[in-house]
């Protein structure tokens, strides 16, 4: 078995105080999650609804699950009853569906708006202008079962650390802009979810409050 406990503790020791660790367990077996759980890790991230639902059934109930992948609207109803945070909200349509299903479940679901800043054409997320538009439109203000807690993004998958740092800085500046404009008095809007295995050291130097780390903790994924 991969040395999950050791790796988890190494990652923890390398994180500044106040940065939350989301252990990304997608494609990894439940025994790996249990190993991390035994070390006190409680926040885990998954990106596929069926895999997540399967794991939720057999793992401890005090785990906080974050949905980190692209979420299809027809899958929201399955996770709304228990999900702790939906990190990758990339459309008003998805936000509306989360509001609807969270209301049915009698819950408030915490979400992050996903930004598209990376160069890759394939990545999901709202452009900065689309995000401005969504917030300016204001429909979200009427949503009583959704709490917008901040922003999430992925940097370009490149070796150029200066480029990665610049993308994180763009996201951090944008966070300040919308915080001031829409959430100045809302303490819940505080999260900047950026940084993965290969770039979290750069992310925490550029405003990240929440890193999403899989490979460094659990080893390579077997698809
Ligand atoms: C898989 C994934 C991660 C974790 O990536 P690693 O390189 O394994 O750390 C983080 N964020 C998102 C959105 C992911 O899909």
UniProtKB/TrEMBL annotation:
Essential cofactor(s): pyridoxal 5'-phosphate
Keyword Transmembrane helix set for record: no
CDD domains reported in the protein's UniProt record: PLPDE_III_YBL036c_like
Keyword Repeat: no
PROSITE patterns (alphabetical): UPF0001
Entry keyword set: Pyridoxal phosphate
Role description: Pyridoxal 5'-phosphate (PLP)-binding protein, which is involved in PLP homeostasis.
Protein name per its UniProtKB record: Pyridoxal phosphate homeostasis protein
């Amino acid at each position: 078995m991969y040395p999950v406990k050791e790796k988890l503790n190494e990652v923890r020791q390398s994180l500044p105080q106040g940065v939350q660790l989301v252990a990304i367990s997608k494609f990894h077996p439940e025994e790996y999650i249990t190993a991390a759980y035994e070390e006190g890790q409680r926040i885990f991230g998954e990106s596929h609804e069926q895999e997540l639902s399967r794991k939720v059934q057999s793992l401890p109930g005090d785990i906080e699950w974050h949905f980190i992948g692209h979420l299809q609207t027809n899958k929201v109803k399955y996770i709304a009853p228990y999900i702790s945070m939906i990190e990758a909200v990339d459309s008003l349509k998805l936000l509306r569906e989360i509001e609807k299903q969270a209301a049915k479940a009698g819950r408030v679901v915490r979400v992050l708006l996903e930004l598209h800043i990376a160069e890759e054409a394939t990545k999901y997320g709202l452009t900065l202008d689309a995000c401005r538009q969504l917030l300016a439109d204001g429909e979200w203000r009427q949503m009583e079962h959704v709490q917008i807690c901040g922003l999430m993004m992925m940097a370009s998958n490149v070796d150029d650390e200066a480029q990665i740092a610049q993308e994180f800085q763009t996201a951090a500046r944008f966070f300040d802009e919308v915080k001031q404009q829409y959430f100045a008095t809302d303490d819940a809007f505080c999260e900047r979810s950026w940084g993965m295995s290969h770039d979290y050291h750069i992310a925490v130097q550029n405003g990240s409050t929440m890193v999403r780390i899989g490979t460094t903790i659990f080893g390579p994924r077997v698809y």
